[in-house]
Design goal:
- The complex is a heterodimer of chains A (239) and B (65).
- Helices cover 45% and strands 6% of the residues of chain A.
- Chain A has a two-stranded antiparallel ribbon. Chain A has a two-stranded parallel ribbon with strand order 3-4.
- Chain A starts with a helix and ends with a helix.
- By secondary structure, chain A is mainly alpha-helical.
- The model of chain B has no long low-confidence stretch (mean pLDDT 79).
- Chain B starts with 7 loop residues before the first strand and ends with a helix.
- In chain B, 38% of the residues lie in helices and 17% in strands.
- The radius of gyration of chain B is 12 Å and the shape is flat.
- A two-stranded parallel sheet of chain B has the order 1-2.
- The longest helix of chain B has 12 residues.
- Chain B has three helices and two strands.
- Chain B has one domain.
- Chain B has 65 residues and is α+β, with helices and mostly antiparallel strands.
- The chains are: A mainly alpha (239), B alpha+beta (65).
Amino acid sequence: MPSAREFRRLALGRTTPLKAPTWASAPGQPAIRAPQVHALRNAVSQRRAVGRPPGPAGGADLRPRVPGRALRRGCLPRARAFARRPVQAAAGLDRRRRDRLQARVLRRLLDAATLPRPASSRAGIGHRQLYLWRHFIPPLTGAGFRVIVPDHLAFGRSDKPDDPALYRIPRHAARTEQLLESLNLREATVVPPGRLEPASSCSRERSRPGPTARSAVSSPASTAASWHFVRSRSSSRGR
Amino acid sequence: MALRSKPVFIAWAMKDVAFLPSYLPSYLDDLWLADFPNAEVLRLPDAGRYLQEDAHETILKFLRQ
């Protein structure tokens, strides 16, 4: 079986070497790179896009048909278990293993986001959400901000598991909290385009106030559902 | 709620085909401004659904502050 990189090259006819993604960068800040995770995600994405018969409803069948090498080794199940129950999954691990597993989960949630790319480079992958922010990232990094663009579950090339419970707002909020905590952000400005970050910010502030310095909301109507959820949770807890 | 003490900036596209300006009272006034009365609201008269495309320069000014 070809490796993930070979699979991508064969499927797309690419001959140029692939670059590892950079998830976070700013002048003077170290970039986060994970070629292994990138290769794994490429393998999953390409197997979704290439050589896959249409699903029963006429759409693409998103289930991986042939698991890649990293998947067979059990990397993905462990990461998924950690994403589902991070506290319980990390309970029996030593600090080094827990940090490595957490980093793996978080890296799977992120996407190569710091460089603007033409739409054609994303063709077939369909990552419109990130493409929308291409006008924001370079000016902000140029102004000295550290810009991090999470690729949430089911967005872009992130995993698209079948379990609907994984897509519930508390899960999204928990994963975003992990991201903020792992990066030790103290002056974060949350700019949500969708429906996740208000819940994440609020949940984070309830447990440990401080890191979210401010919030900016665009398209607030689409975030209303999550904000209703936050309000109901807060009122039920007497806050 | 601790988040209420944080600065909040809201951008609303007035030409959004999905969320029309007529929705403003129910969403903006009754929901967001009820919880964040000091939020800074920016109405973008020429921006459509993809306000990141149509009004990125305007929004960037606020994010840089």
